[in-house]
Design brief:
alpha/beta, Protein-Tyrosine Phosphatase, Chain A, globular
């Protein structure tokens, strides 16, 4: 468990508002000796699939004997999850020691700027410092929000990855796909290779323009790489992928959904680009198979209980919910599926619920413990508009909501019901703790 002293100190650094600049993180890293320059990075942005794609890139690199650092966000249960070395989160003692190493420099930077170093900036600096201390061969770094002004955008990565872009964080990044894409394209730097997943049409022009402006090489899913074939398999799916350097067949991926096959294709292309495989031919197929076979993605269509089956998925916007619904329809055979939904107050709730409605029999609306959680009454009102009053149940607490959903699933006439907990990473993290405590 994380040191309570460190957890409390980090909590004091949540910003009151977003400040779009890199001044504090640059200053802090300069004081630390620019640890992010001690290793190359693969930088990952997008709206959906960032964390899973980063975890896939990490697993593939490790299968080739590369020592990796991985920085992702947000976390499910513990902040220590965000910083991983060789696929394992920092243990609490090492996390606390890294904090103690970096915090005094953050306090110096606090005194130099109008705004204090933020929670995310401090964690970013801690990750880069931990990676340099390990040391790692490569860092896989996920953007926190957007790209251009994100604290991670100091790595100047030779490979920049853009997962599918959709509408999210519109109050910060812009209210159109094109505006959001322009912000995310900011992680593509001069001379880099940009590996771009399949995108909605409005996202393409900003991405192409950025690549042209900085002289980056653009590699597009569906043009330069892609999924040639996917077949459902026990515990996941079997993939044939077309990479930058050639074909990779017979790859088992222990994750569900066509969207995860797309993420796998993108991750493979990113690793190929890093190794220069497009010029040298394919990577070693045995290592690629080994890497993908080891991939995990907690909280993404994760089965945490059987009888009835309980699934957890952190979908929190309409695009993520659409991918989730397609995967459930394609790969699961529930007689009825009861959703437990708790969301944050800045999300497109109607859009998210609308995507889930065709595959969900009933929904139990609730709230997580985040101060940004949408109140249950407000969520119930939107849910009733989407599902109808007779398919909506309210519960004030997540634990009660899960119990209600399990009871509804078990009450089905054929006993083939399931429960889906979704709507927010916070919701999924809290559900994981609750369900593990009861197992």
């Amino acid at each position: 468990m994380i040191d309570a002293r460190v957890e409390k100190a980090l909590a004091t650094r949540f910003p009151a508002h977003m400040v779009p600049d890199l001044d504090r993180i640059t200053d802090l890293l300069d004081l630390l000796g620019s640890p992010q320059r001690g290793y190359p990075s693969i930088h990952v942005t997008g709206t959906n699939g960032k964390t899973t794609t980063a975890r896939m890139v990490d697993a593939l690199l490790r299968a080739f004997g590369i020592r990796t650092g991985r920085y992702t966000s947000p976390h499910l249960e513990s902040v220590t999850e965000r910083i991983a070395i060789d696929g394992q989160p920092l243990d609490p003692d090492r996390f606390a020691a890294t904090y103690d190493d970096v915090a005094p420099y953050a306090e110096i930077v606090d005194g130099r700027h109008a705004e204090r170093v933020t929670y995310f900036e401090l964690l970013t600096a801690m990750a880069f410092a931990a990676f340099a201390d390990a040391p790692v061969d490569v860092a896989v770094v996920e953007v926190g929000l957007g790209g251009r002004w994100d604290a991670t955008n100091v790595v100047g990565a030779p490979v920049a990855v853009v997962t599918p872009i959709g509408l999210d964080h519109v109050g910060i990044l812009g209210d159109t796909i094109g505006a959001i894409a322009a912000e995310k394209a900011g992680i593509v730097h001069a001379g880099a290779t940009a590996v771009v997943a399949a995108q909605p049409e409005p996202a393409l022009a900003p991405l192409r323009a950025r690549a042209a402006d900085v002289g980056a090489t653009l590699r597009m899913q569906g043009v330069d790489f892609g999924v040639r074939q996917r077949t459902l398999a026990v515990g996941g799916q079997l993939l044939d992928l077309d990479g930058l350097g050639g074909s990779y067949d017979g790859i088992f991926l222990p994750l569900h959904g066509a969207h995860q096959a797309g993420n796998a294709s993108t991750a493979l292309a990113a690793v190929e680009a890093f190794f220069g495989a497009s010029d040298r031919g394919t990577l070693d197929i045995d290592a690629v198979r080994e890497g993908f076979a080891q991939v995990t993605s907690p909280g993404r269509l994760e089965i945490v209980r059987r009888g009835p089956t309980v699934l957890l998925d952190g979908a929190h916007n309409p695009a993520g919910a659409a991918a989730l619904a397609a995967a459930i329809e394609d790969e699961f055979d529930f007689d009825q599926l009861v959703a437990v939904v708790a969301v944050l107050d800045d999300k497109d709730v109607a859009g998210l619920l609308g995507e889930l409605e065709p595959v969900v029999s009933a929904v139990v609306v609730t709230a997580n413990t985040s101060p940004r959680a949408l109140p249950v009454d407000a969520l119930a009102e939107v849910a009733a508009e989407v599902f109808g009053d007779d398919r909506v149940v309210s519960a004030s607490r997540l634990d009660d909501a899960i119990e209600r959903a399990i009871a509804l699933a078990e009450a089905g006439p054929l006993g083939g019901g399931g429960v889906l907990v979704t709507g927010s990473i916070v919701t999924v993290g809290e559900a994981r703790r609750l369900l593990r405590g009861r197992s």
